[in-house]
Write a structure and sequence with these properties.
Blueprint (H helix, E strand, L loop, with lengths): L3 H5 L8 H7 L16 E4 L15 H14 L3 E5 L5 H13 L4 E7 L2 H11 L5 E8 L2 H8 L3 H18 L4 E6 L6 H14 L3 E6 L6 H14 L7 E6 L6 H10 L4 E4 L13 H10 L1 H4 L10 H12 L20 H9 L20 E2 L5 H10 L6 H17 L3 E2 H14 L4 E11 L2 E13 L2 E10 L3 H13 L4 E9 L8 E9 L2 E9 L2 H21 L8 E2 L1
Parallel strand pairs: 1-2, 1-8, 2-3, 3-4, 4-5, 5-6, 6-7, 7-8, 16-17
Antiparallel strand pairs: 9-10, 11-12, 12-13, 14-15, 15-16
């Protein structure tokens, strides 16, 4: 498995000049632009991806995902929106300081305070980028921004200029809701941004409104109408409201776009973003037609997908392209017969191309600390000191109950350890009495640490079901009453002794919070997931309250 530095070696030695020079190589064939020019992968999992309902990552989780994105070979990591909260600022700054190889980007509105805050968060990065944006559609200007077109042009010019003064050589400008904007006005704003020094121009389909032919035509028209667009990186950012995010992204690439903005597993606002894995594998599998290479290390795709799914709690649907559980499964007898005779009869790519292999890491209860550490390193997880000690303790607990511990189990255990580092509440123990002819009852003990003080809180409850009684007992222990909105259970691997993963969403004071946990005991996983949701209640209150329209993870 490649290290972050090895993954980044395929990138241009200098950035963004290297990308800009590539963007200016106008190889054409039948009207197509930039044939043979590598596509820049701009990953927004940690920013737009976290805006999806049910997603909220703590700084430790964001940093771990950022390291994995570097191993995946993404060119740019949009680490967050530093001005949105102190926590997001801290997470972006930690990523900027620690993650080497990719460009580290922060998002900022076209306001001086946002831009200066963004720069403070990313300025220590090996390769920093400020990404600023303003709306250009009349519907946004009239109903949301309350700005005239002239004001938008002035703001874009001034704020891009400020970005360039702070981060010379790498500034991205986005025209929000570009696909519903008047094309002549859009072209005028983009030209002003380029003139002010923007090196990347993003044309987002913010509400997932465009059709592929329409989007491709818009890219062609902008190349014709915007002076200097061929000398900068042209980026596209597509949402999936009509299920066309990947199709629109590829249509733009065919017309010469040189950067794609994507998210792992396609997570993001509303219906999500273009899925990184789908765009990457389309470029690889259909390189004969698209003729646009990329630097993604495709064998890291499956591992990255599992990590993002585990940390965000966003389960990947079974029939999801590339990374779904059924993506390489064949139920039809005709299909099975064909694949057994010749794989290419019904498979256009191999599971190992994305990092799935038939041989899995297997550890047992006699495996030691060094073996665990080595196997963790093989799957891209590098731990030392107390963090390794805690994962080893959890591993031993699981290995005593489970005959074989696989790579998927290890990833889940590490995810548990990372999630608990900042918890206010932690489950010490629980007791459940349940049966078909008795009223279920539960007793729990929850450890609380806050402002340097620690205590153990006890709770008990009688209720209609074992899970309900556990949740009610936890409410009694911590003094917070949550209304359960969603409860999901899935197995990490196959087998009766598989680890179970539980995801819950609860409502407290009119706001929604989510929690996730794993355990070989589903009731224990349920209790831990519920406690984790209440941790997010406590975290939201410390931060001044959560937005009612967001689920905080």
């Amino acid at each position: 498995m490649p290290t972050e530095q090895e993954a980044s070696s395929a990138r241009k030695k200098t950035h963004p000049d290297g990308f800009v020079k590539e963007a200016s190589l106008r190889a054409t064939s039948g009207g197509r632009r930039n044939l043979g020019v590598p596509v820049v992968f701009f990953d927004t999992t940690l920013r737009d991806g976290e805006q999806s309902p049910g997603c909220s990552l703590n700084p430790e989780e964001k940093l771990e995902i950022a390291h994995q994105l570097a191993r995946l070979g993404v060119d740019v990591i949009e680490a967050g929106f530093p001005a949105s909260s102190p926590g997001d600022f801290a997470a972006v700054r930690a990523i900027a300081r620690e993650v080497k190889g990719p460009v580290i980007c922060g998002l900022a509105r076209c306001t001086e305070s946002d831009i200066r805050t963004c720069w403070e968060a990313i300025k220590e990065a090996e390769r920093p980028r400020i990404h600023t944006f303003i709306s250009t559609s009349d519907i946004h200007l009239r109903h949301q921004m309350r700005l005239s077109r002239e004001e938008v042009i002035r703001i874009a010019r001034d704020m891009v200029g400020l970005c360039v003064s702070l981060c010379p050589g790498d500034v991205e400008f986005s025209a929000m809701d570009a696909t519903r904007s008047d094309v002549d006005f859009l072209a005028q704003v983009l030209a002003v941004a380029i003139e002010a020094g923007a090196t990347t121009i993003n044309v987002p389909d913010t509400v997932g409104y465009a059709l592929p032919t329409e989007y491709a035509a818009l890219i062609d028209e902008l190349y014709e109408k915007v002076p200097g667009l061929g000398n900068v990186v042209l980026s596209v950012h597509c949402h999936n409201d009509l299920g066309l995010a990947v199709a629109n992204t590829l249509a733009a690439v065919e017309r010469g776009a040189t950067q794609v903005e994507v998210a792992v597993n396609g997570i993001g606002e509303r219906a999500g973003n273009a899925a990184l894995e789908e765009v990457a594998m389309a470029l690889v599998v259909r390189k004969d037609l698209l003729q646009r290479p990329c630097r993604i290390v495709t064998t890291e795709i499956a591992r990255t997908s599992r990590m993002v799914s585990s940390f965000t709690g966003q389960m990947v649907q079974a029939n999801k392209a590339i990374v779904g559980r059924n993506a390489f499964a064949h139920e039809s007898g005709i299909h099975q017969d064909g694949v057994l005779k010749e794989r290419t009869t019904y498979e256009i790519m191999h599971a190992r191309d994305i990092g799935l292999t038939e041989s899995d890491i297997v550890l047992g209860k006699h495996s030691g600390r060094h073996a665990l550490r080595a196997h963790l390193a093989e799957i891209g997880i590098h731990l030392d000191g107390p963090a390794l000690d805690e994962v080893f303790r959890r591993f031993k607990e699981i290995a005593d109950k489970k005959k074989e511990v696989t790579a998927a189990d290890l990833e889940a255990l590490v995810g548990e350890e990372i999630r608990e580092r900042e918890d206010v509440y932690s489950l010490e123990h629980f007791y459940v009495s349940a049966g078909s002819h008795i009223v279920p009852s539960s007793q729990v003990a929850v450890h609380k640490k806050s402002n340097g003080e620690e205590e153990t809180c006890a709770g008990k409850a009688f209720s209609g079901g074992s899970v309900e009684s556990i949740f009610s007992a936890i409410d009694d222990a911590v003094g917070i009453t949550g209304k359960l909105l969603d409860y999901q259970v899935r197995s990490i691997t196959s087998g009766k002794d598989s680890l179970g993963e539980v995801r819950v969403v609860v409502e407290v004071d009119g706001k929604r919070y989510a929690g996730q946990a794993v355990s070989i005991d589903v009731l224990e996983a349920s209790a831990k997931a519920y406690v984790r949701a209440l941790n997010n209640v406590a975290r939201g209150r410390e931060a001044g309250g959560a937005r009612a329209d967001r689920v905080y993870w």
